[in-house]
Amino acid sequence: MEMKEIFKKHTVFSVEIFPPKKPGTIESIYSTLDGLSGIEPDFISCTYGAGGNSADTSTIDICKIIKEKYRILPIAHLTCVNNTKEDIDLIVQRLNEAGVTNVLALRGDKKEGVEPKNDFAHASDLICYLRQKAPHIHISAACYPETHPDSGSAVSDILYLKEKENCGAEHFISQLFFDNEDFYDFYEKTLIAGIKSPIEAGIMPVTTKSGILRMVSMCGASIPKKLSRILNKYENDPAAFSDACMAYAIDQISDLIANDTAGIHLYSMNRPDIAQRIYGAVKSML
Ligand code: FAD
């Protein structure tokens, strides 16, 4: 589906899931997807090989389930740094067989002990390749409100983002962030750079202090004082911790919607209970 179509009507609300971590346990994804019923997200995206998960085969299978059983638009994440052109051709063939026409094209991260393949250095290379080889596929891509950790500067990061759009990306999903001002500053720079595609704000509700500290150390996001105080004050009180972190995420989302952000992309961490709680609190604003 052409991405600009879904942004025409209202603030988009989308959800990200990841494949089950153990190989051969794809059925367990049904409980996650069943748990999301009632939310009716505009699309569900499914990660590919994130965090070292060997999801290579199940991402497309899960997208097929999302489309056929749940009648929701699926977006299959696809990384390129560890794939050759032949690998990508095979993946496109599998996407076609599954009837999946939307992809989030990513570079991915180098894996320890795995020599990266040389066909695609950056997401933009994959986007150009897909645009040429599989013009029927609609391409989304990632962006970074606090700048990608490998970037020389915020300016070059935005210019490369523009290159992704020039190559054929129709829509962007942001890395998680906890200070909306970072997103607004970044968004303003994308407008100055002439980027016109809709940009969704990626929101990750905090569930544990150790989990979020690990996550931000990997992706380079910062934790503002307001959130840091919550993490420290309630770390030994699970109920208060959960209430305070949910309130933080809901407050972030409400403010983003009030400021006309094109969409909210919820990193659900396969926790439909959390997605339901957040959706319930913001649905009238979407
Ligand atoms: P790129 O766009 O290639 O950017 C990477 C770096 O290179 C940046 O610093 C950029 O400024 C620079 N750059 C870009 N283009 C050029 C160029 N032409 N020349 C020189 N420099 C350039 N990882 C997974 O493994 N699986 C997933 O499913 C997954 N899902 C994700 C979903 C979202 C919404 C986000 C935000 C990230 C996701 N990631 C995933 C993580 C992602 O793979 C990493 O952040 C990775 O380090 C960068 O991917 P990218 O597509 O943004 O890379």
Q: Mind explaining what this structure looks like?
A:
The protein has 286 residues and is an alpha/beta fold. It has a single domain, classed as TIM Barrel, CATH 3.20.20.220. The protein is 44% helix and 16% strand. Strands 1-2-3-4-5-6-7-8 form an eight-stranded parallel beta barrel, surrounded by four helices. Helix 6 links the parallel strand 5 and strand 6. The two termini are 21 Å apart. Bound molecules: flavin-adenine dinucleotide. The site of flavin-adenine dinucleotide (FAD) has 24 residues, from strand 3, helix 5, helix 6 and strand 6.
Task: Give the total of domains.
Answer: 1
State the end-to-end CA separation.
21 Å
Q: The CATH topology is what?
A: TIM Barrel
CATH architecture: Alpha-Beta Barrel
N to C succession of SSEs: HEHEHEHEHEHEHEHHHEH
> Mind describing the biggest β-sheet?
8 strands, parallel, barrel
What's the shape? globular
Strand content: 15-25%
Kindly report the average pLDDT value. 94
CATH class category name? Alpha Beta
Bound molecules: flavin-adenine dinucleotide
Content-based structural category: alpha/beta
Radius of gyration: 18 Å
Tally the helices: 11
